[in-house]
Specification:
This protein has helices at residues 20-37, 90-96, 109-122, 144-155, 166-174, 208-214, 219-224, 233-246, 296-312, 326-334, 363-367; strands spanning 2-6, 40-46, 75-78, 101-107, 126-130, 134-135, 162-164, 193-194, 198-201, 253-259, 265-275, 280-287, 316-321, 338-349, 352-362. It is an alpha/beta fold. The protein has 2 domains: 2-174, 3-Layer(aba) Sandwich (Rossmann fold); 193-367, Gcn5-related N-acetyltransferase (GNAT) (Aminopeptidase, 3-Layer(aba) Sandwich). The strands form 2 sheets. Strands 8-9-10-11-12-13-15-14 form an 8-stranded mixed sheet. Strand 14 and strand 15 form a beta hairpin. It is elongated and about 65 Å long.
């Protein structure tokens, strides 16, 4: 179980909200109770985009100090109403932690709270909505009180959420007992890795031009691992933003591959599939055409494998390849993977089926 505090940000947390004082006091009470009971408090912020006045770097964007996170509490940023949209990493994080119940509080009832209640329900979480722990402003169609009651008393109960009183929610929090197995892997995210010729680090928005020059706009490169190519800087910046957000929870691992000599982003590497209960991750990578044949793919892959075992805590690292992808098969061989088997006719490429060949390496083999 977690307490999810959504969008309680300085720019919108004020007396314009319906039942503002009751909302403020009730939410602070639940946050205090959660911390005392060992229920994790997770925070979400909404980003309206650059130059909106409600984005990273703007005072209005920051969480109101009365509800601010304490050391160690996760903060997820989003740019749509639903905090559970796949690229925020929130769903990955909660599933990895074994969370099944989500107590949701915050702003605003008819926007991000409604979308997140429904998004969490669709993702399989039991959504719990305490009374007067969400609120909104009046709009052109409904006043704040009517809007609040429409969702809390009509829309969510019995459909998308369990709606409780604050006292009932406090009792639920106080009776909380941790259950299930803790994640077998670590939420360290894509820490920077340095090799002889490369730096692997988290993506930055400033990487867009370099990515377009070297790989992300190349149909052949992107097509090799089933991804679309991106032709405009805006598209690439949106992709980078998703990469960055996906890593917020710490259980997602994706790196920009930077050539030290030139400073160019020449490709990427990732654990695109992570299984916490099985303690394994599956690698994907790509290197721009101009930088192929130099051993960069092998150098980067070995570094990512080492990180997977020593930092992320995997027991197994796996990788797959199409039979026709001879260069990647050579990389796999150089990294010491063991062939496991094939999923036959898995890919449809240019009108023809191809197998998916699986390889893996175990922690004990890598250390040896």
């Amino acid at each position: 179980m977690i307490l999810l505090a959504v969008d309680i940000q300085k720019g919108i947390t004020d007396e314009r909200l319906y039942a503002y004082e009751e909302f403020s006091g009730s939410v602070r009470r639940l946050i205090d109770e959660a911390r005392k009971a060992g229920v994790e408090v997770v925070h979400v912020r909404h980003d309206d985009g650059k130059d909106s006045g409600f984005s990273v770097g703007d005072e209005a964007f920051e969480i109101d100090g009365r509800f601010a996170p304490v050391s160690g509490e996760k903060v997820f940023d989003k740019d749509v109403n639903d905090a559970f949209i796949f690229y925020t990493g929130l769903e990955d994080y909660l599933e990895t932690k074994g969370v099944s119940k989500v107590i949701i509080v915050g702003l605003q009832t008819d926007y991000c709270i409604d979308a997140t209640v429904k998004g969490g329900f669709s993702a399989g979480f039991e959504m719990i909505v305490p009374a007067y722990c969400n609120t909104t402003r009046s709009n052109d169609y409904m006043d704040g009180e009517t809007t609040y009651k429409f969702y809390n008393e009509n829309m969510w109960p019995g459909r998308y959420a369990k709606c409780l009183s604050v006292d009932e929610t406090v009792d639920l929090i106080r009776s909380y007992r941790k259950s299930g197995q803790a994640p077998l892997i670590n939420d360290c995210g894509p820490e920077t890795i340095e090799t002889d010729r490369l730096i692997l680090r988290g993506f930055k928005i400033d990487d867009a031009d370099s990515m377009m020059r070297n790989w992300v706009s190349d149909d052949n490169i992107q097509g090799m691992y089933g991804e679309p190519s991106y032709k405009t800087k805006g598209e690439v910046e949106a992709l980078i933003s998703k990469f960055i957000k996906r890593c917020q929870g710490g259980y997602s691992y994706r790196w920009a591959i930077i050539e030290k000599a030139s400073g160019e982003c020449i490709g990427q590497a990732a654990y695109f599939l992570v299984n916490s209960s099985g303690a394994f991750g599956e690698i994907e990578y790509c290197i721009g055409t101009a930088y192929q044949g130099k051993g960069y793919a092998t150098e980067a892959t070995k570094a990512v494998i080492d990180f997977g075992f020593k930092k992320a805590g995997f027991n197994k690292v796996q990788i797959c390849v199409r039979p026709s992808n001879t260069p990647s098969k050579r990389v796999i061989e150089k990294c010491g993977f063991t062939y496991e088997g094939a999923l036959r006719d898995y890919f449809m490429i240019n009108g023809q089926f191809e197998d998916r060949l699986y390889y893996s390496i175990l922690k004990e083999e890598w250390n040896g």
